[in-house]
Write a structure and sequence with these properties.
Elements (H helix, E strand, L loop, with lengths): L3 E5 L2 H13 L8 H8 L4 E6 L2 E11 L3 E9 L8 H12 L4 E7 L3 H6 L3 E11 L12 E4 L5 H8 L8 H9 L3 E8 L2 E9 L5 E8 L2 H12 L7 E6 L3 H9 L3 E10 L11 E3 L7
Parallel strand pairs: 4-5, 10-11
Antiparallel strand pairs: 1-2, 2-3, 3-4, 5-12, 6-11, 6-12, 7-8, 8-9, 9-10, 10-13
């Protein structure tokens, strides 16, 4: 009989997980693994069949009461044999007692419902080329996020995410191949956006903004770093202004997930959430 065991992923394993995600059409960032590992080094599990990777899942703990599940994959030739469900049981046990979120692809949403996850909103990935000459609104300036006191950045992030994630955010905004911009008005943070290089379209996430005009300016400035490469934003339909902005930019929907939670949907600033940070870690 084959031997199936579950182990904590190594840094190399996390890079492999990104390869698997790419094969599924998820288009992960080229250096996402550095930030993922910083978020929770023990939060990535690999199911091994006779020593060879067969399935994976991320079960990242944030603070004392929140968790996020992602990267739930089994190699195609091994699906339907129970290896994924055994890893799922181990992963969800690691998050027991926490309100847990995930972004589930359409095909898996019925299974997630059976496991106790309820939908909060739909994310639609919009992709395409955008104008690169849009100035910010009067009184707003865009600056490199790395030049601000980090506490300002993390405090702003907490308006849109239900738990502290400083280690993750530090790596997410400074890893190679990405640009992080903050919108400032009278010294106050009014927007935050991060562009990261991916295998196809460059991804923008998070995209936070006090107004659609600030969101547009952030997207335009980030796209200007490589005008010939399309950008992609995972837009939550819980913010109608974000959906309208994507349509006005002429971006095309290409991928859909549902944000789901095991408990009540966290109380975050939906009106300022124009693009989620990551489908894998929230």
């Amino acid at each position: 009989m084959p031997t199936f065991e579950i182990t904590t992923a190594s840094a190399d394993d996390i890079r492999m997980m990104a390869d698997w995600a790419h094969a599924e059409g998820w288009n992960p960032g080229l250096t996402d693994g550095q930030a993922f590992f910083a978020a929770d080094p023990c939060g990535f599990l690999i199911g091994r069949l006779d020593g060879a990777p067969a399935s994976c899942v991320s079960v990242v703990r944030y603070g004392s009461g929140f968790g996020f599940l992602g990267f739930y994959l089994t190699r195609p030739q091994l699906r339907g044999q129970g290896y994924g469900s055994r890893l799922w049981a181990a992963g969800t046990a690691r998050l027991a007692g926490r309100n847990t979120g995930l972004d589930g692809v359409v095909a898996q949403q019925p299974a997630y419902r059976k496991s106790g996850f309820l939908p909060a909103w739909t994310n639609l990935r919009y992709e395409g080329l955008v104008p690169v000459d849009v100035a910010p609104p009067p009184g707003v300036t865009l600056v490199d996020a790395r030049t601000l006191p980090f506490g300002q950045v993390t405090a702003y992030d907490r308006r849109f995410f239900p738990a502290e994630r400083d280690s993750f955010l530090a790596a997410w905004t400074t890893s190679p191949g990405r640009t992080a911009l903050v919108a400032l008005a009278e010294g106050e943070v009014r927007g935050l956006a991060v562009l990261r290089a991916c295998r196809t379209s460059s991804r923008i996430g998070p995209l936070y903004a006090a107004t659609p005009e600030i969101a547009l300016a952030l997207v335009s400035a980030l796209a200007a770093t490589d005008p010939s490469t399309p950008v992609a934003v995972d837009v939550p339909d819980v913010n109608p202004a974000a959906v309208r902005l994507a349509g006005e930019l002429g971006l095309t929907p290409s991928f859909e997930t549902a944000r789901m939670y095991t408990g009540p949907a966290p109380d975050v600033d939906h009106a300022g959430l124009f693009g989620v940070t990551s489908l894998e870690l929230g």
